[in-house]
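Aggregate trends can hide what the representation actually does to any particular protein. This step matters because it turns folding into a mapping between discrete strings. For completeness, the protein is quoted in full, as a sequence line and a line of structure tokens:
=====
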Amino acid sequence: MIRVVGRRSLAVSQRALSTTAAKQTDVVLSPGEKEKVYPRIGNRDVVGYGFNGTGSYMDREEFPAPGIRFGENTPEVLALREKEKGDWKNLTMAEKKALYRASFCQTFAEMKAPTGEWKSVLAATIAGLAITGWLYLWMKLYVYPEMPHTITKEWQEDQVKMMIAQRQGAIEGLASNFDYEKGEWK
């Protein structure tokens, strides 16, 4: 039993590392799995396990082997797949690209290309800051009460003069920094 499991995992790992489409089409699904997968994918080949074992296609950099092919099987693609089983030197660059596009939607360069999403994020951030600023000004004018008179600069200066006149903190406090003979700060 251990040997069978070992051979099975070896076959799966070889299939996952295979580079030709002809070798990847040997995935065998049970009848129950086929009934679950094929109505959703249409006329596309199941070529592997996929991202999480489901018959779905996703372009992901971290998982570059989707479970099904991107494009459906058309007569042109099937003819190219038959030609692919032979020598790849006989394929033109356009045929190789057509085979790639039948299996994958995007290249890695297209997946990694910048989308420009940062512009909408920056615009939303600036709009949020502007709305916040206007809301703050509205609340300051219409919602908050008047500031107390003890916050004004004149009141604070009067308080300091009164503390000096009363000699509050004459040893270590505020009044200790005032020279009473000259009438100025030390």
Observations:
- The chain is about 50% helix and 0% strand.
- The longest helix spans residues 117-142.
- Residues 115-144 form one domain.
- Strands lie at 178-179, 184-185.
